[in-house]
């Protein structure tokens, strides 16, 4: 599974990349937009994971639901804001516990995950600065 986060100005603009992916757009390859991103938000904010992922705006499908090989989901503003606000120190604090979660089979490597978290945070900051939103292109 490929999970590429990118910036777009609207749901329609984001959905338009479903076929080819976000080539040419500011983007970062990262982790699953549902469980792993939700776990990260829970660690960054102290919010309950179940509360986060039960929110209707969490990883909401914006592309055609009939497409079977790729889809685009929107990330809620609360995720983008929390990630954009995270300092290097905060990311370093959460990467250890995050890497040990079930979704990493309890054996993620914090040293490999931290640079990705910083790139993802920088993309979230850019989205916030541009008044745009963060989306994830997910492809098989």
Outline of the structure:
The protein is an alpha+beta fold.
Question: Any overview of this molecule?
Answer:
The protein is of the alpha+beta class. The protein has a single domain, classed as Hypothetical protein yfbM fold, CATH 3.40.1760. 46% of the residues lie in helices and 17% in strands. The chain contains six helices and five strands. A five-stranded antiparallel beta sheet has the order 2-1-5-4-3. Helix 2 packs across helix 5 (88-99), helix 4 (77-85) crosses helix 6 (110-130) and helix 5 (88-99) crosses helix 6. It is globular and about 35 Å long.
Helix and strand topology:
Elements (H helix, E strand, L loop, with lengths): L1 E7 L2 H5 L11 E3 L5 H11 L3 H6 L5 E2 L8 E5 L2 H9 L2 H12 L10 H21 L2 E7 L1
Antiparallel strand pairs: 1-2, 1-5, 3-4, 4-5
Helix pairs in contact: 2-5, 4-6, 5-6
